[in-house]
Q: What sequence folds into this?
């Protein structure tokens, strides 16, 4: 059975003018009252110079089960269908795909295919891993625990030691 797993309310962000190039950024006080933490992060990542945009047509396969990940994706528009065996669900705007697997250097456990026209921002795994290695020990530890929980690892991957 298919179900929707994750998505940001992009209609709300669009109405606030945060998704067009002419929209004015909200002040921190306005963001605290009008946006959830996920919506705030989503609107900030959209303009990040660290990431580059990509557009995929309906039916394009982003990852096959077993692929190694060298670029993760943040979905900004559209949906992907995620499948593994009998399990299937959809992910939409705000979903981050492949980041934990890429950083931990483990194979993708799912096949992900664009269900609609898909607009993503790409996170280069090598650069993200370098940023994590070069950050302070506390933040590096948070990243390590988050990645391990996200993909169910028991042992710390070499890339996060």
A:
């Amino acid at each position: 059975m298919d179900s929707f797993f994750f998505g940001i309310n992009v209609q709300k962000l669009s109405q606030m003018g945060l998704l067009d190039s002419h929209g004015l950024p909200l002040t921190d006080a306005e963001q605290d009252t009008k946006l959830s933490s996920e919506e705030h992060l989503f609107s900030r990542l959209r303009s990040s110079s660290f990431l580059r945009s990509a557009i995929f047509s309906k039916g394009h396969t982003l990852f096959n089960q077993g692929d190694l990940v060298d670029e993760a994706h943040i979905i900004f528009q559209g949906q992907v269908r995620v499948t593994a065996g009998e399990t299937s669900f959809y992910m939409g705007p705000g979903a981050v795909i492949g980041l934990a697997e890429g950083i931990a250097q483990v194979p993708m456990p799912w096949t992900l295919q664009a269900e609609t026209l898909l607009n993503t921002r790409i996170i280069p795994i090598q650069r993200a891993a370098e940023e994590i290695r070069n950050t302070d020990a506390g933040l590096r530890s948070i990243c390590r625990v988050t990645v391990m929980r996200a993909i169910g690892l028991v042992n710390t991957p070499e890339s996060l030691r």
